[in-house]
Automatic annotation (TrEMBL):
This is Glucosyl-3-phosphoglycerate synthase. It comes from Thalassovita mediterranea. GO terms for molecular function: glycosyltransferase activity. The lineage of its organism: Bacteria, Pseudomonadati, Pseudomonadota, Alphaproteobacteria, Rhodobacterales. It is an enzyme of class 2 (transferase). Its EC number is 2.4.1.266. InterPro entries: Nucleotide-diphossugar_trans. Gene3D superfamilies: Spore Coat Polysaccharide Biosynthesis Protein SpsA, Chain A. The keyword Glycosyltransferase applies.
Length: 405
């Protein structure tokens, strides 16, 4: 049964199992009459052929309170774009598939490149940013939600609980972050949160002292979840990271732009499982190896921007402190798994900790060598200031692709 604990930094909205989904959805439909809700689905074409998307589509087709669904499609050629359009015909809501690799979209990308405002790399961050641009160009939504497209345990209650805190006009929240337990396949998952982010934040507090930002991040039960809901008024000034630091970056933006009382986390699922990234210990540019380095850099950059001074000695101390903290947490995770009948391979867990410890040093070295690195995509307000017709042209290009192909 859920607890009712509050951490005192941000509000935690629990699932106390005292309200039916039908009642929740009825209230959302009432709110949606005046507060339109758009859902963004950033996906790769390959995910349409996976096990998760057919069920996600089936569940979403039953949701009545959504105004629009925006599917950002990456890594697709023309034939695959046509197949994607056919795939999403099962949705009952107003929806559009944005072909991010279309000639029209590439032409718009070149236009941004000429202005020096183009995203630095392809990936989920750019996909989310482009989809946000389309939604802002439509100018008719009050709330935006995002969730991943590889959720094997998806049901429509996840979305209802995610959007409710920011749709309800009597609530003060501008941003809602979803959380859930990461269990699946008889095991305890969520390695990067458990074995990197949580012990790293503990270590940072011990090494550099109390920081409000560290306490803020530690308040989130699952800071790396890909499920957000936001009121659209904050989106034009939102900086989206282009690397694997997307989720931490968005939380950092909420910290920078909003008061803590405007941010909440909400319990959206009893069990959540999705595609697992490989550890990739031999490949620094892929898998959890790359992800862990990018996440560390995102946290270091934010702390530096708030006045923390980092040196090589600080990073060496941080690595040692992290390693001890991670092993201590591993003991707790192992016992928790055993109590609940779940598998946890301690050898593989310690291998991950060793890799993450090395990546703390790698991220620190990259930061020291290039402290001015800014992997954030330009805000939409700045794009509008540089090219006032860009959002209109982006919306028109997506609709032209939809009509032509």
């Amino acid at each position: 049964m859920a607890d009712f604990h509050q951490n005192g930094n941000i509000a935690t909205l629990h699932n106390l199992r005292t309200r039916s989904l039908d009642e929740l959805e009825h209230e959302l439909c009432t709110f949606a009459d005046t507060r339109k809700i758009s859902l963004i689905l950033p996906c790769l074409y390959s995910e349409l052929e996976g096990a998760a998307m057919p069920n996600i589509l089936k569940e979403l087709s039953q949701v009545k309170y959504l105004h629009r669904i925006i599917i950002g499609l990456d890594a697709a050629d023309e034939a695959q774009f046509r197949k994607a359009k056919e795939f999403f015909k099962g949705l009952n809501q107003n929806h559009i598939v944005i072909w991010n690799d279309s000639p029209r979209m590439l032409e718009l990308g070149a236009r941004l490149e000429a202005l020096g405002l183009a995203p630095a790399e392809q990936g989920k961050g750019k996909n989310v940013w482009s989809s946000m641009g389309y939604m802002l160009g439509c100018a008719d939504s009050s709330v935006m939600a995002i969730h991943d497209c590889d959720i094997l345990t998806y049901d429509k209650e996840l979305l209802a609980r995610l959007v409710y805190p920011v749709v309800n006009p009597t609530f003060p929240y501008q941003v809602a972050k979803g959380y859930y337990p990461r269990i699946g396949g008889g095991g305890l998952n969520g390695r990067v949160t458990r074995l990197l982010v949580s012990p790293l934040l503990i270590a940072l507090k011990r090494v550099i002292g109390d920081r409000d930002y560290i306490d803020y991040l530690r308040s989130f039960r699952y800071p790396l979840s890909g499920e957000f809901a936001m009121r659209t008024a904050i989106l034009p000034d939102l900086r989206i990271p282009s690397d694997w630091g997307l989720e931490i970056g968005v939380l950092s933006e909420a910290w920078r732009n909003l008061a803590p009382k405007a941010v909440c986390q909400v319990d959206i699922s009893d069990a959540y499982d999705h595609k697992h990234q490989d550890l990739s210990p031999e490949e620094a540019a892929t898998g959890l190896n790359r992800m862990s380095t990018d996440i560390c850099k995102a946290i270091f950059r934010k702390l530096a921007a708030d006045g923390t001074v980092f040196t090589a000695n600080v990073f060496r101390t941080l690595k040692a402190t992290y390693y001890r903290s991670a092993l201590d947490l591993l003991e707790a995770y192992y016992n928790d798994a055993r109590l609940n009948g779940l598998e946890l391979d301690r050898h593989k867990e310690e291998q991950a900790i060793e890799l993450f410890a090395e990546n703390i040093m790698r991220a620190g070295q990259v930061f020291l060598e290039n402290p001015y690195e800014t992997p954030f995509i330009t805000t939409w307000n700045r794009v509008h200031a540089a090219d006032s017709g860009f959002l209109t042209d982006l919306t028109a290009a997506a609709r032209a692709d939809e009509a032509e192909y």
